[in-house]
């Protein structure tokens, strides 16, 4: 929730389909950061480099993650680069430089929490796996021969007249009777 709603880093894949996304994607920063560190991106007088001139076109990422709108993708990339710049200045240089995070509208608390979840998160923070109660679990061994979703006329061989499609029911033809009659004639 924090990555998608609070920090606006995670974006859904193809939101133009208007489906409820179950998986959210964070735009890739590794090729951008290495290219920026090598001096490949212009800075335009700002702390952060201009992400609009990337090797991976922003429009390509926007077509996949934000229905063609480049604004959310650029915002997510700039926020991740600002977090990286702030944490690097704090840990390597020993100086708290908040210019980069001020430029993208983040607070120090947000950046430290982002760093905790994105860089040093443990297993429980990275993956949300629903817990189950073993005392409430049913033994699945007797169900091993089940047919799945049927209305009784699947592998159970019942005589139900229920029809899902509300049309007249066509009874199955017994092939062995037809074959026996053909052989007997």
Automatic annotation (TrEMBL):
Pfam families: Nitr_red_bet_C (PF14711). Gene3D superfamilies: 3.30.70.20, nitrate reductase domain like (1.10.3650.10). It is found in: Cell envelope. The keyword Transport applies. InterPro entries: Nitr_red_bet_C, Nitr_red_bet_C_sf. Its cofactor is [3Fe-4S] cluster; [4Fe-4S] cluster. Residues 29-107 form the Respiratory nitrate reductase beta C-terminal domain. Keywords: 3Fe-4S, 4Fe-4S, Electron transport, Iron, Iron-sulfur, Metal-binding, Repeat, Transport. GO terms for cellular component: cell envelope; membrane. One of its GO terms (biological process) is anaerobic respiration. GO terms for molecular function: 3 iron, 4 sulfur cluster binding; 4 iron, 4 sulfur cluster binding; electron transfer activity; metal ion binding. PANTHER family: NITRATE REDUCTASE BETA SUBUNIT, RESPIRATORY NITRATE REDUCTASE 2 BETA CHAIN. This is Respiratory nitrate reductase 2 beta chain domain protein. The lineage of its organism: Bacteria, Pseudomonadati, Pseudomonadota, Gammaproteobacteria, Enterobacterales.
């Amino acid at each position: 929730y924090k990555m998608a709603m609070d920090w606006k880093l995670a974006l859904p894949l193809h939101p133009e389909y208007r489906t409820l996304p179950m998986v959210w994607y964070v735009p890739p920063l590794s090729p951008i950061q290495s290219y920026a560190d090598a001096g490949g991106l212009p800075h335009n007088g700002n702390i952060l480099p201009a992400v609009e001139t990337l090797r991976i076109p922003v429009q390509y990422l926007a077509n996949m993650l934000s229905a063609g709108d480049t604004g959310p993708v650029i915002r997510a990339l700039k926020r991740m680069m600002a977090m990286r710049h702030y944490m690097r200045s704090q840990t390597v240089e020993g100086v708290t430089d908040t210019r980069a995070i001020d430029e993208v509208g983040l607070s120090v608390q947000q950046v430290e929490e982002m760093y905790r979840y994105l860089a040093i998160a443990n297993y429980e923070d990275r993956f949300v796996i629903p817990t189950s109660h073993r005392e409430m679990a049913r033994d699945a061994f007797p169900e091993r021969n089940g047919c799945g979703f049927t209305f009784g006329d699947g592998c159970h061989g019942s005589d139900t007249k229920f029809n899902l499609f509300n049309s007249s029911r066509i009874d199955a033809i017994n092939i062995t009777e037809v074959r026996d009659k053909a052989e007997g004639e």
